[in-house]
Amino acid sequence: MANDFEGVRAALARAVAGRQISDDAIGVAAKQITAVKHKIHGLDVCAYGICIDYFIGDKEWWRILPELIQVDGGQVKGIEIFPWGIPWPDILHVRVTHSFDAIPEAHI
pTM of this prediction? Predict the structure, then answer.
């Protein structure tokens, strides 16, 4: 998945399809999400908001973490960090769950 606005907007719209969220709200959240400079590998709906998946290969991943959790308009609801798999133990899958002002939690 690319971090471009249209790609994130489309992925976000698919993730929240059927939940009666306006295009404007999706656009606002997509703009906030695309501000993150690290490559996004996936978006999905989680129990408490929108999950954003990243793969981090940097051995000093803890230095990158603050950049992943600081999304304008997003409140961090959870962070999961785990090795991507046995073949790639040096790559971490980081999943950050945010709720967004533009998308009320009741609609997620």
Answer: 0.78
